[in-house]
Specification:
The chain is of the alpha/beta class and 221 residues long. Helices cover 50% and strands 11% of the residues. Helix 8 runs parallel beside helix 9. The longest helix has 23 residues, at 2-24. The termini are far apart.
């Protein structure tokens, strides 16, 4: 009886062993960052006057349509941190933009990245983007309904650090959207977000209108 049981078991083990190389070569599950960067790499557009750069807040809008600028490319990636933006700056610079609009940092705070690391990454981003005109937006607060609404104190500290990094930096403009987006309680206005963090169409309308003068200046063929 034991011999009868061992033979099928040995045969099954042989089948599994034969397929181990195939199992080891199973497809890699791509991250959203890899998906987005892979799509950017497929683009046949070789240059852009304006690049919108950031995380999911930037990714969430069809910026060329909203602004009416046909020479604008959106390069937002949901979940991106300052480190991930820094890692893909070559892809941005090869587009030879006249202006880059940057908002990044909220995911660093959400993921508890040490502040000194975030600030160092941010400085490195600014240093790398020393050719085009930079329009640097402060990180927006989250809404009172957001599960991590306590992040707003850390966001405010990061915004102060961004202000210090940008101060007296040539060819750079600070864009402070916060007065348009904050309610009397200091949180992101409920009508400007659908989940406490990401923006509603009304939120993107306010952002679009705030950058309109810069888009008009730099949207050139």
């Amino acid at each position: 009886m034991l011999k009868r049981l061992l033979i099928p078991a040995i045969a099954a083990a042989a089948v599994i062993a034969a397929h181990l190389p195939a199992l080891a070569q199973s497809p890699h599950r791509m991250s959203w960052n890899e998906v987005r960067r892979g799509l950017f790499a497929l683009s046949k557009v070789e240059s852009a006057s304006i690049v919108m750069l950031g995380d999911s807040l930037t990714e969430g809008a069809p910026w060329a349509e909203l602004t009416g600028c046909p020479h604008l490319l959106e390069r937002g990636v949901g979940g991106d941190t300052t480190a991930k933006v820094l890692a893909r700056l070559d892809d941005v610079l090869k587009l030879k933009p006249r202006a880059v609009f940057l908002m990044i940092g909220v995911n660093d705070i959400s993921l508890s990245v040490p502040r000194e690391t975030t600030v160092a990454n941010y400085k490195a981003i600014l240093d790398r983007l020393d050719g085009p005109h930079l329009v640097v937006a402060y990180v927006l607060p989250v809404a009172a309904s957001h599960g991590k609404r306590h992040m707003n104190s850390s966001i405010a500290v990061l915004d102060d650090a961004i202000a210090s990094l940008v101060a007296d930096r040539p060819n750079t403009t600070i864009l402070d959207l916060r007065p348009r987006f904050r309610g009397p309680d200091g949180y992101l206005r409920a009508d400007l977000s659908y989940d406490g963090l990401h923006l509603s169409p009304k939120g993107y309308e306010l952002w679009r209108d705030a950058i309109a003068p810069y888009v008009a200046e730099y949207c050139l063929p």
